[in-house]
Amino acid sequence: MSIDSLSLISFRNHNSNYFEFSKGVTVIWGENGSGKTSVLEAIHLLTSGKSFKTNKKTQLIKENKKNALLKAVFSKKKVKNIIAAQVEKNNSKIKVNGKQVTNRKDLIGKNNVVVLSPEEQPITKGAPLQRRQFIDKMFSVSNKKYINSLQEFNRALRQRNAVLQNIRENKEKANQLPSWNNLLSDKAEKLWGERVYYIKEFKNLFHSTVEQYDKTLDIKVLDTIQEKKKGEILEILNKREKNDIISGRTSYGPHKDDISFFWEGKNLRDYGSQGEHKLTLFLLKVSEMLFLKKHTGLYPILLLDDLFAKLDLERSKKIVAMLSLFSDEESKRAQTIITTTDILNVENSGLLEKYDNSKTIKLQR
Predict the structure, then answer these.
(1) Measuring CA to CA, which residue among 79, 114, 8, 49 is closest to residue 335?
(2) Which of 18, 47, 123, 222 is deepest in the core (most CB within 10 A)?
(3) Which of 70-84, 279-293, 324-338 has the lowest mean pLDDT?
(4) Residue 236, CB half-sphere, CA atoms under 13 Å: how many?
(5) What is the pLDDT of residue 331?
């Protein structure tokens, strides 16, 4: 799987730009503000329907312009697909080969990407929600059944929470709650069953990735995810009814799951350095890439924003050695697009030497 070309009109600070990418590695470099990250953001938008930087569409449109236009050509098993997007202040339209996509869910899995950027740091530094979103996105891309289970659970959760709030405000009677407890426990059992299966697989893959990077490195993933049967879930929901009514929120279920990262026995979130967070996130993203390769049969496109910042030369060289290992039937290497402010960092890391098919693109402010 790869992206061949990308055209941008009035997107972020790009007036009109056209890019062609190497099947191997493409390094986009230039000063801050030259639009490097925007190229990755545009690719992500065309493959998932949203930016990884913002939910505000007005920020995506160049100042004093009415809309932004994006178009890319993707290759998948020798088949070309053209994806185009028109972003307006209050709306956006995406077309695949001229046919409009009405639901963002329909884009998932068509052209997969994995993004490593500063905006992803909440995965290791932030609240449990960010970590759940990370695994949920990965598992959803791997299997449409998972995203259906996730959406059904979230819908039931919103409905139960609305009933709880209405009961608290005396708009509904408490005897309405048992039917919602029953529905939620059914959807929770289904989601937990799938999440437990996938998280076990992902943890094993991550620990293998860490060992491959450096056998002496001690990074572990722990989680609170446990498979529960419907009867167990229903019993707990019934016991917590009074407290849930007081708070107006459901206090038990898959929406409370969390995963944690430990570096040499210490919680990374509380004690990790900038470099340790950056390296752990990189290894998580490599593991995500390998997870998607296993379940979809193709490597996703790897988008690495400012990869070598806050990493010493030794770690940078180990990262390059790891990246050079990945190959598939379509190309000698999994396609990788990297941004940097300092091309010398990339050259010193040996990245370009590891790839037979590489390209550099310099952007000006």
Answers:
(1) 114
(2) 47
(3) 324-338
(4) 15
(5) 55
The answer, yes or no, to whether residue 12 has pLDDT greater than 90, is yes
Locus of tokens 């695949």: 96
Instruction: Read off the tokens for 200.
Output: 């076990």
Q: Which of 132, 122, 155 has the alpha carbon at shortest distance from 257?
A: 132
Q: Give the chain's length.
A: 365
225 in helix, strand or coil? coil
Q: What are phi and psi of 217, to 5 degrees?
A: -80, 130
pLDDT, tens digit, for every residue of 27-69? Answer: 999 998 899 999 999 999 999 988 999 888 899 999 889 999 9
Alpha helices, H only, the chain:
36-48, 122-125, 128-142, 144-168, 177-213, 230-239, 241-247, 268-271, 274-296, 313-323, 343-349, 351-354
Residue 337: band (very low, low, confident or very high) from pLDDT cuts 50, 70, 90? very high
- Per 3-state DSSP, what percentage of the chain is helix, strand, and coil (rounded to 5)? 50, 20, 30
